[in-house]
């Protein structure tokens, strides 16, 4: 599990609450059900309206992934692929069948299985690149949903504030209530801006980043399997794959 998003969102909200307390405010005054219902409920429903039910399922499935999924590390596969390349060079592609049961990466298993079955290298690359494209599309769509929510939320918050101010104007005959009503009216704007910048947009950015890391990992698999099919020298395979890694992962592999 990579806790970056969980830490960032939770600590940001805590900082807001602590700042409010330091200014002499009451944190419970910020937790008001009607404006929170308006901001979160209307924002999510409007985001849903801009897509399909399938998009919403991807987005809410991605929500769990954004907070709990580990960040994919392409470097973890280099050793496995090089080991497969060594065995294939010594004993042939068919010898890799017994090795697949010990590999956890489904994409690598499928790719090697295609190679063992004798799939043409160019055709295999096309198949695997199509799978990457499909996965990229899903990741982008999930991120797009939350990015859209981040765009809608501040405006919904302003709508809530306007509604609250209308209520204030209806009660001008009760001046002792005006301060409380005006403060309550602006809670909607607060939650609109806060939810957008501390919740929705970070989730969108996280899903986009995880999609990029997945793509890097899958592209490394494609290059590795292509090298295995070609019978390349394992040392050349290792060097080639490490050259595709981000700098920090190359240093880890070298160590």
UniProtKB/TrEMBL annotation:
One Pfam family here: MotA_ExbB
Subcellular location: Cell membrane
Principal cellular location given in the protein's record: membrane
Family matches, as InterPro entries: Flag_MotA_CS, MotA-like, MotA_ExbB_proton_chnl
Record-annotated membrane-spanning stretches: 35-54, 145-169, 181-203
Annotated MotA/TolQ/ExbB proton channel domain residues: 101-219
Gene Ontology CC terms: plasma membrane
Key words of the record: Cell membrane, Membrane, Transmembrane, Transmembrane helix, Transport
Record's bilayer topology term: Multi-pass membrane protein
GO biological process, one term: bacterial-type flagellum-dependent swarming motility
Family: Belongs to the MotA family.
PANTHER family (UniProt xref): CHEMOTAXIS PROTEIN MOTA (PTHR30433), MOTILITY PROTEIN A (PTHR30433:SF3)
Protein name in UniProt: Chemotaxis protein MotA
Organism lineage: Bacteria, Bacillati, Actinomycetota, Actinomycetes, Propionibacteriales
């Amino acid at each position: 599990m990579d806790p970056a998003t969980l830490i960032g969102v939770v600590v940001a909200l805590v900082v807001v609450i602590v700042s409010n307390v330091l200014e002499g405010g009451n944190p419970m005054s910020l937790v008001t059900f009607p404006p929170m219902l308006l901001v979160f409920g209307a924002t999510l429903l409007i985001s849903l309206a801009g897509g399909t039910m399938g998009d919403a399922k991807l987005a809410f499935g991605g929500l769990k992934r954004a907070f709990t999924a580990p960040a994919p590390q392409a470097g973890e596969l280099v050793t496995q692929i090089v080991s497969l390349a060594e065995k294939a060079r010594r004993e042939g592609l068919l010898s890799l069948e017994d090795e697949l049961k010990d590999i956890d990466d489904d994409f690598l298993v499928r790719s090697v299985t295609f190679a063992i079955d004798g799939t043409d290298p160019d055709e295999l690359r096309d198949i695997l690149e199509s799978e990457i494209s499909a996965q990229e599309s899903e990741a982008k769509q999930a991120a797009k949903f939350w990015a859209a929510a981040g765009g809608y939320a501040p405006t919904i918050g302003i709508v809530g504030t306007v509604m609250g101010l209308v209520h204030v104007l209806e009660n001008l005959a009760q001046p002792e209530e005006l301060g409380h009503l005006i403060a309550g009216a602006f809670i909607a704007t607060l939650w609109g801006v806060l939810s957008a910048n501390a919740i929705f947009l970070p989730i969108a950015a996280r899903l986009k980043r995880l999609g990029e890391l997945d793509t890097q990992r899958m592209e490394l698999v494609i290059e590795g399997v292509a090298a295995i099919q070609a019978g390349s020298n394992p040392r050349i395979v290792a060097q080639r794959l490490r050259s595709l890694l981000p700098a920090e992962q190359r240093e880890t592999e070298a160590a």
